[in-house]
Design brief:
419 residues; alpha+beta; rod-shaped
Amino acid sequence: MAGLWAGIALLTLCALGIVLLPLLRARRLQQLEVAEDRDRQNIDIYRERLSELEQEQAQGNLAQAEFDELKLELERSLLQDVDVGSNAVRLRASKISTVQVLTVSAMALLLVVSALGLYAKLGSAPRLELALERQAQPDPFDGRTPTLEEALSRLEQELEITPENVEGWYLLATTYMGAGRYDEAIAAFRQVLNRLPADAPQYTGIMGQYAQALYFANGGKMDDGVRAQVSATLERDPNEMTALGLLGIDAFEQQRYAQAIDFWSQALVQADPTAAESLKAGMRRAQQELRALGEPVPEIPGIEAAEIRLAVRLAEGFGSTLSPDQAVFVFARPVGGRMPLAAVRLKVSDLPLEVVLDDTQAMTPQARLSGVDEVEVGARISLTGTPEPKPGDLFAILSPVSVRGQTQALDLVIDQVVE
């Protein structure tokens, strides 16, 4: 940037020279013309008066001695007027030139300083500095992967220079959301909404994300501010996915499971594949909660419940020596896997029995039946009462079994012995 300002200063001096030199030259020529006009006037007066003296001498009114004396005085007066006039003109011209130079120089410098100030304030000087910095150092992190804080700091600095960069503000807002810095995400989303045209196709979606930031900043709870933003978003687009998703979460937290399913079903209209899977998982979980409460479970068009119905029984004449209280484990696990995705514990006295396996019997929140397409199902009577298989345990296995689309219970007959 120092080279840029030096170049500007040099060009300014050249411009001043181009303006001042012709001006001074023209003024000097004008003063010389004035001086010449005055000299001509003095000479004309001298000639006129000399002519009058010559006429007086010719008429005999002046003696030769008087004529010579008066002529000498005229000549002296002429020389004096010409010399004094020239000096006065030169002095006046000098004073005028000095004043003009100072005035023009001051005005030029004031104009330059004002222009540079306005350029620094309203122009693109900061952007130019940023561009030059990028050119000098294309990779500010020297080839290494920056930390989140470093990347955020860099983005914040660039947005201070180019605050109209809507994409930059959106990236900053979503990064803050991912980092859990919700208050800062709210401020960044406001910048996006203030700068993005209200008729832009992305505007309503960003309104929904702004409502989501308000929701998380409030500890994952609805308040008047969040509800107002959700309402404003849905007024513009009744199917906006994020706003409907928030209403579904709020309804689920308040155990209004059927209402949560309604909100999430409506949100599916605009959901991308990843978001759609999350919404469907939420709806299936709401169905499970309703089923566990013994309440009516609404059907969800286009979504098949992740559940497996099994008719578990002992083979005829098999296990006649078993105790009625011995444990029976019924489970579903990934094909070839060992960790159950769903499991229930029964007793021998419960058999035969129809069992429904679904996500409500998940062993961990991360490993659910709805997360896979096929499983293997089994039932095992444990002689020791422990989940781990031991020699002598009785069991049955079916594989592979689809976790969706099942309309009738599968027959699971315990007729094998663990070796």
